[in-house]
């Protein structure tokens, strides 16, 4: 799920994604790129980890995958 410059992924992934770290979105309609994480929060009731990104997302289509980016 995405909104502006944030995305949500299932499960508690707060140990995987860290503030200042980079993520890679791939297989999406228009957001394939590397992004810097500004904040990470977990909502237990919804079982979602939300990542606020430094950069804006370009496409509102909810698809593709996200992983930690390692250089």
Through-space gap between termini:
26 Å
In which range does the helix fraction lie?
under 10%
Instruction: Let me know the average pLDDT.
Output: 93
Unreliable stretches (pLDDT < 50, length at least 5) are: none
Number of helices: 0
Lateral strand order in the biggest sheet: 1-2-5-4-3-6
Secondary-structure-derived class: mainly beta
DSSP E strands, number: 6
For the biggest sheet, the summary is:
6 strands, antiparallel
Order of helices and strands, N to C?
EEEEEE
Shape: globular
CA-atom Rg in angstroms: 11 Å
- What portion of residues belong to β-strands? over 45%
How is this structure best described in words?
With 71 residues, the chain is mainly beta. It contains no helices and 6 strands. The protein has strands at residues 2-3, 6-10, 22-26, 33-43, 48-53, 65-68. It has a 6-stranded antiparallel sheet with strand order 1-2-5-4-3-6, with no helix packed on it. A hairpin with a 4-residue loop joins strand 4 and strand 5. The relative contact order is 0.37. The model has no long low-confidence stretch (mean pLDDT 93).
């Amino acid at each position: 799920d995405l909104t502006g410059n944030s995305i949500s992924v299932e499960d508690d992934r707060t140990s995987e994604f860290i503030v200042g770290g980079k993520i890679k979105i791939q297989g999406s309609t228009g957001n394939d790129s590397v992004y810097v994480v500004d904040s990470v929060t977990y909502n237990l009731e919804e079982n979602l980890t939300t990542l606020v990104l430094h950069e804006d997302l370009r496409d509102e289509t909810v698809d593709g995958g996200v992983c930690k980016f390692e250089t």
